[in-house]
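Hi X.,

You mentioned you wanted examples for the new student's onboarding notes, showing what a folding record looks like when two proteins sit in one file. Here is a clean example. The first protein comes first, with its sequence line followed by its C-alpha cells.
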Amino acid sequence: MTNELTPKFNPTEVEAGRYEKWLEADVFKPSGNPDAEPYSIVIPPPNVTGKLHLGHAWDTTLQDIIIRQKRMQGFDTLWLPGMDHAGIATQAKVAARLAEDGILPQDLGREKFLDKVWEWKDEYATTIKEQWGKMGISVDYSRERFTLDEGLSQAVRKVFVQLYNKGWIYRGEKLINWDPKAMTALSDIEVIHKEIDGAFYHITYQIEGSDEFVEIATTRPETFLGDTAVIVNEKDERYKHLVGKNVILPIINRVIPILTDDHADMEKGTGVVKITPAHDPNDFEVAMRHNLPMINMMNNDGTINENGGKYEGLDRFEARKQIVADLKELGQLVDIKPVRHEVGHSERTGVVVEPRLSTQWFVKMDELAKNAIANQTTEDAVEFYPPRFNDTFMQWMENVHDWVISRQLWWGHQIPAWYNEAGEMYVGEEAPDGEGWTQDEDVLDTWFSSALWPFSTMGWPDENSADFKRYFPTSTLVTGYDIIFFWVSRMIFQSLEFTGKSPFHNVLIHGLIRDEEGRKMSKSLGNGIDPMDVIEKYGADALRWFLSNGSAPGQDVRFSYDKMDAAWNFINKIWNVSRYILMNAEDVSADAVSSALTKVANKTAGNVTDRWILTRLNDTARRVTEQMDKFEFGVAGHILYNFIWDEFANWYLELTKEVMFGEDEAEKDITRAVLLHVLDQVLRLLHPIMPFFTEEIFEKLPNTSGSIVVAEYPKVRPEFNDDKASEGVAMLIELITAVRNIRAEVNTPLSKAVPMLIKSEHADFLNAVSPYISRFTNPSELTIAKDLAVPEQAMSAVITGAELYLPLAGLINIEEEIARLEKELAKWQKELDLVNKKLGNERFVANAKAEVVQKEKDKLADYQEKFDTVKARIAELKEN
C-alpha cells in the first residue's frame, strides 16, 4: 500500500467504498468483551416518508461521535438502528402517489393498500440506509428494527392490554383534535398553533316569543349549527331577565336555552357566549356541567353533515361564507371585525384542525405522569443536557392531558380490541376464539410504539433477552428539543411502567438548523438544504465537523456555506500536514516511534520543542475528553482546531524544519517519530467527528495497523508532561510573534536582517533556542542577556519573561513609539482590572477550584510585570 496522499484533499475519492469496507469488517458490532463496560444508543428512528433532512443528519452525527469515541475507549458499544412507520405521514404519501394514477385507497381495500405501503417502506428504507452510509454512521445492522416488526408488534400489544387491564386505557366519547384531510384524530402535541388573519363575526340571536335579541361574537360562525345553549354570567345584571328563556338559532330555527355559567365573562365581548359542545373544548366542559346535548355538525372530511340543514355537503369554510351571507341578508349579522389570532393546524398535513366530539381510545395519564415526575428525584433520574430541558419535561408532565391514541388509518398497529354483534368487546394480545368477532378498524398513534423503542428493540417483553439484560437501559439519547413531548417524555413514562427503569441515562438535546438568515427551514420558504447535496460537494467529514461544532447543546445553528468552506479548508490543512509527515517518515516503524518517545520522555534525546508538543498533546487529549464527556462537542472541536492548526501545523511543524534541514540524523529520527506519534493521536482524536479521511490517513501511517475505528482513543501520558518545556516554547513563540508584529508596524520585511536585543532572566534558555529565533526572525545581530543596556531608539515589546528591543534608528518616530506603548499600557491596565475584579469577588475565590484561583493569581503577576515594564520604557523614552 502506498503512503502517498493526493496533493489536494478530495472527499469523493476518500469516502468512496470506505463505509462498505467497515461493514464487511464488522467493526461496528459490539466487542462482546464481558469485562468491558456496556454503552448503548438506539437511533431516533427516521420515518420512512422520504430522505433524511439536516435535523436527522445532526442527530446521527452527534450519536456517531459518541459511539465512535466510546468504542475507541474500550466500551462494549451497541448502536442499534431502526426506522419508524410514521402512520399519518406515510399513509398520506402513498395515497398521494396512488392518486396520480387515479386510484383511491378505498378502491384497493385495506389489505391491498397496505401491500402498497410496504412497497413504499422497502423503497425508502433502502434510500435512508444509503444515506446513513454516506453519513458514515457506525450502527450494527444485524440488530436493525422497524416499528412494525413482529417483535415490536408483540411489545405494543402487551403494553396496550396491560394498560387496559389496569384501567389506564379506555374507550370513550370526548372532544379531540380532528384532522379533516388525514381524517384522523390527533393528540394535543400534534397540533401546531399558527397566527393567522381571521375575524370576529357579531351575530344576533332572537329571544323566543319576543322582539328582543342578544348579540354573540364568534370566529367560527359555521359552528352555530351545533349550538345547544347560550350562557351568561349569573352576576350580569344586563341579562338576569333572560335566564331560563330560550333563543332561536337563525336560519335553522332551533330553540336552545339561556343558562348561567361562570365561563361567561362579563368583561369580555357582549357577555353572551354560544355553546357548541361537540366542537369546542370549553363548551364541552360547560355542556358536561349542564347535561346539554352535543350535536356534531361536521363529517370526517370537514364537510357539513345532515345536522347542518341546507348547508349539508358544503366544505366548512365554504359553509362559513354562505352562512355569513345568509345572516347578512336576514339582518342578523351586526359586524365583522378583523382579528389576528392563533389557530391549531395539523402537524402532519398542515390543515386547520377541527375540535370535534368523537369516540376514541385514550391513555389515562395521571398515574403514568406521576411516576415519571417522581423518578426525576431519584438516582435513576434522566439527566438532560442542557439541564434546563428537565424543567421543560417536568412542566409538560405536570400539565399533561389524557392521550388520545387511536388513529383512523390503515397503516400502523391495529388496536387489539374486537367486537361482536351482541355488543361485547374483547381486548387481548391475540384474537378471541370463536366466530363473529371483528377487530377495531383504528390503529394506534405512531408515538405509542415509538415510546417503547429503547426496550422493545432490545428483545422486551422477553426480559431474559441477552441484549435487554446487557444494554438496557441505554446510555444516551440524542434528539432535538422539538420532540421532547412527542417522544422523549413518552419513552420515559412507558419504560418506567414496564421495565421499572428509565430508558436512558442521558438525553442530549440539540436545537434546530436554520438558514443563514435565522429562519426555520421549510418547503414554503424554499430554504431547505439536502445533506446529500452538501456531502456531494464537501464530503461527509466536512458536514459532520460543521454539525458538531455549530453550537452548544440545546442551541439552534445557522447553516452556512462559508462554514462548510472553512470545514473543508481545515481538513485540507490536516491532509497537507499528513503528506509532509508521510514524505519525511515513510520508513519509521512502530518500535522506532516507541523507542524515540521513551527517550524524549526520559530527556535522553529530543529537544525542547518535542517535549513541548507532547505536553500540549497531553493537555489537548485531556481537555477534549472532558468536553466530549459533557457533550460539549463544539468546545471539544474548538480545542482540537486550535491545537492542530496553530500549535501542531503552524508552529511545531515549522520548528521541526530546523532539525529536518540539519545534519544530525539521530535528532531527525527523534523528530520523525514525534511527528508520526502526534499525527497518529490527532487522527484518533478527530476520528469520531471525521471518520472517513482519518481512516484514509491512519492506514497509510507506517507505525499503525488495523482500522482506526477500533484503535485506542488517546489518553494522557504523564511521562510526556514537561511544564518547563511548555513555558519555554510558549515564550519562544510569543517572542517570534512580537518580532513579526514590530517588523510589520515599521514595514520591515523578514528578508531584511535587523539587530535584536533580548533582556531576560531566562537568557540561558533563550540562547539554547537561539537557532529557532534566528530562523524565524532573521536578526543581523542577536544579543541575549540577563542584563544589557537598553538602546535609546528602539522598538520594544514586553512578553512573558523577557523584554525585546529592535534598534531601528531612522525607522521609528519616538513620539509614535510612545503612543504605541501607551496603547499597550492601557491594554495591560484593562487586563489587570479584569483579574483584580475577579479575585476581589469573594464568591469566586470561595467557590472556584484552587487551581482556577491560582491561575488567576498567576495572570495578575504576569500582567503586572508587563504593565510595569511598559510603563518604565515609556518613562525612558520621554526622558531621552
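Then the second protein repeats the pattern, sequence line and then C-alpha cells:
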Amino acid sequence: MKKNVYYLLILLIASAQVFAQSEPRKWAFDNYHKYYNPKVNEPEKEQAIEKLRAHYATSTEVDGRIGSVKLSWKECSELIQENGAFKDLIDKERNVASTVAEAYKRLAKIAISVRRGEVTAEVALTPSYLKSIIYYGNLEISRSNYVHRFHDSCFSIPSSAVSIYFSFLKQMDANESGQNKNPLLKEACDMLKVTALQSWTQPLRKDATDNNVVQIERFRHHVWWVGGNGLGGWSGYRAVMPVAVMYKSVPMIELLAEVAVGGLSNTAQNTNETDFWNEGMTVDGAGWGHGRQCLIWGYPIHGSNGIFGILNLLKDTPFNKNIDRENVDALLNFIRGGNFYYYKGYILPCLDRGSMVYDNKTSVISYINIVNNLITNYINVLTKAELNELTQLKKEAQTKNIQMKDYPAGMYNGTRWFFNNDDLIKKTDDYHLIVNMASSRCSGLESADNTADNYNFYTADGLTLFQRTGYEYKSIFGAYDVTASPGVTAREGMEKLVPVTNWEGYNSLHNFAAAATSGGLNSASGFIFEKNNTYDKKDENGKTNKITNEILYGVKANKSWFIVGDYMVALGAGVNNNKPEMAGTIRTTIDHTAWENEVTLIQNGKEKSLSGNMGSILADKNPIWIKQKNKFAYTLLPEFSKKMNYTLETKETDWIKMNLTNKSKADAPKSVKVFKLWLDHGQKPTNDTYGYVVYIGKGNPAAELPMVVTNNDTTLQAVQSMDGKVIGAVFYSKNAIMKAGTTTLKVSAPCAVLIEKVSKGYIISVTDAEMNKDLKEIVVTLNGKSISFAMPQGKECGKPISQTVTL
C-alpha cells in the first residue's frame, strides 16, 4: 500500500511538472498565433514590409549580439549533438536563461556566417542545427512567467532569434509560403517567431497590457518599457521592430512609429505621471534612467538612438511618422544641457553606473548621433538658426572640446542648475565644477556587484568635483576611498563597505535642494543632507529589506556652495552624527584627486613647497592656501573650520574591486598618486560647522578673500562679495533674515537667492528649494523693497527665475 502511495505521489509530481512547463509554452504559442499576421491585405504596406524584410536580411545590425562568442561558426556547429544540445552546455542547463542565451548566440553566429558568405545555407542548416533552435527554444518558453525573466528573455534571446531568422530569410520565406517540405525547418521557423516575440511580451507587466501587447500603454510608465529599455536599439535591447517585420504586422509597426515620436519628449518631477515617458530626457536638459537617476549617458541616449533607428527605417514607407516642433525642442534642450556633463573628451565621473571602469581615452560626445540625425534627416523641421547651431556643434564635437562661445551663458557654458537632477554645474574653457546634490525627489546612481560599479554610495551626497582635464578623478578610481568623496560629509570606513546591488540608488530624506543662477559666473546652492536608501522598503510580504552598510547612515548636515567668479565657498552647518555609538570619524572631504604636480603653500602672496606628504594646516586670519600646480587652491574659513588635513601618497590599485568589468583592463595602472584634503569633525559632532574656499581660476588666488560669510546655520547660509556686487543665500527657513552692513534680505518661502549688481540695477535669481507645485510666487525683500517672482509651473517647476530690478 505504501509503495502504491509512493508511486502515485511521484506520478502526481511528474504530472504537475509537465503541466507547469506546458502552460507557459502554450501561452507562448498562443501569443504567436495571436499576433502573427502574414496577410496584410494592404498592397502598399505589404510591399513596404517586404522591403523591410529584405533590409534586415542584409543589414549588419544583426551582428550586434554575437561579439561575446569566441568560437568560430565551425566550432559552434561541431559542438551541436544530434538532439540539438551543445555538448559543453548540457551541465549548465539548470541556469536556463543564460544557457539558452549563449546557445542562441552561437546559433546566430552560424547564421550570420551564412549571410557573410563564409558558409552556405545548405551546409549550415543541418538537422541538428534546426533541432538546436527547437531544443533551446523549448527550454526558454517552458519557463514560468512568474519568475524574473528580464535581460536574457526580452533582450538577448529575441535578438539572436531575429538574427537567425533574417539570415535565413530565403528559407523562412519558402516555409511561410508553403514551399518548404522539411518539418524540422517549419518547427524551427515557428520557434524563432515564438522566442523572438518575447521582446514584446517579457517580462510580464502584470497589468492589462499583458493581454494585448500591441497598445501604446505597453511602452509607457514602466522601467522595463521606456527609454533605452523600450526602444533602445535591437542589437542591445529589445528587437521590437524586427519582430514586427518578422510578424508582418501592420499594427505592430504603426504602434512603434507612434511610440517613437512620443518618446522624443521630456519629463519632469511634477508632470512625471502624465508625461509620455517617465524616464528619458528631462526638462532641465539632462535625463533619467532606472527611475529618477541622472543616467544621462545611458538610457536617454540609447532610447533616442533606438527611436531614430525606427523613424529612419520607416521614413520612405507608408508607416512614416514626422517629428514636430515639440520633439525638436526636447532634443535641442537635451543636446544643450547634456554638454555640461562632458568636458574635453571625457564623460564626467559619477554620472554613470560604470564610472569606475578604467578608460583613459577621450571620445566624441555620446549624443553626436542625435545631432547627426537632426542635421541629416530632419533639416526640414529645424529653423535656420538651429541648423547653424547644430552644424557648429557637430564641428566642435569632433575636436572633443565643445565651447560654443557665441551662445548665451547657461546654454553651453557658464553655470546651470539641473533642477530635475539636483546638479549644479559650472563649465568654462579653463575648468569644470559640478556639485551633485540630492533631495527626496530624485536618486543617486545604482550599484550592482556584477554589472556596474560596486560602490556608487556617495555620488549624490554633495559630491563636488573640480577638473581642468576631465580625467583627474577617473584616473585614480582604482584606489579610491569612496567614504572620502569630495564635498561629502560622511563617516570614514571604506574597509567596512561591502558591494550591494541597489537598482534605485540613494538620496536624501529631505525635500530641499536648490541653486539660483542667471547662467553666468555666479550661483548660490544648497541642500539638507541625510542619507536615504530608496531600495530599503517593504517587499510584497510586508518585510523590510535588510539594511547593509550601516556606516552610510546617521550623518546630517545643511550644506551649501556659493560660486563668486572664480572662487567657490563651501559651508556646512548642523553637522550631526545621529549614530554616535557607531565607530568612525565624521569628515568632510574637500578634495580627493590625482596628485599630478607639485603641491605648495601660499600666504600673503608668498609661495613655498609643501614639506612632508601628510600633515595638517591650521587656519589663520590671513588665508593659507594649499595648491596643486596648474590645478586648484584650497583654504579654510577660520570662523568655521580650524584645521585642514592632507595626504600625498602613492596607492596600490584594485580596479576589479571597484567594478568587475575591469578584469579585462590589462592596461589599468597598478598604482596611482593621490592628493587628499579633508576636515575632521570627530566621532560625535553636534551642530558642528565647516567652511572652506576653493580657487578654481588660473594662477594664484588673491592675498585676501574677495567675499565674506554673513550666515552659516541651519536656517540660512549666505555670502557677500567684498565689493557688494554679489550676494548668495540659501534660506532653509522663510523666517531667516540676512543682514550684512546696510544690506537686509528676506524671502517668503524656502529658496536659493542670487543677487548680482549690473549697470541697470540688480539681476535677482530665485529658485524654489522644495519644488512646491502649489507655490505660485516667492517674494524677495531687499533693503525694504519687495519683489515678486512668479514661480514656474508644470514641467518647469523648480527652474531658476531671474529678473532685473532697480532699487
